[in-house]
Specification:
With 126 residues, the protein is mainly α. It is 78% helix and 0% strand. The relative contact order is 0.16. The mean pLDDT is 82.
Length: 126
Amino acid sequence: MVALIGIAYILNGIISVLIPPKKISLYYGYRTKFARKNQEIWDYANKKFIKVSIKYGTILVVLEAIFISLFKTSLFDFGERIIANIYIAAIMIIVPMIYMEVDLRRRFKEWQATIIEIKNYKVDKI
């Protein structure tokens, strides 16, 4: 199961290299609210996510290979295997997204400040 997610990450990275998203889109590319703020952030986010996607996909495939070899020795029962796969899959789906969002906000601080100012303005106005 984890290997399938890893392969999906790797394929996503390869497809994005071959057909990179050029314009901000709701359907293709790294599509968070912050990444769609402007074209500069969009371009950076998508170039960065290609590398992150391939890296984390490879890690997932390697982890699955390790788990398969561990589980063949019957150290874990079937239920423990499924639970371990679910936890690893969840972590490895969430971690790249957190990494990307933190990286985007550090790199584009001027946009982060603008968003905070707008939120404060709306709160003060009410």
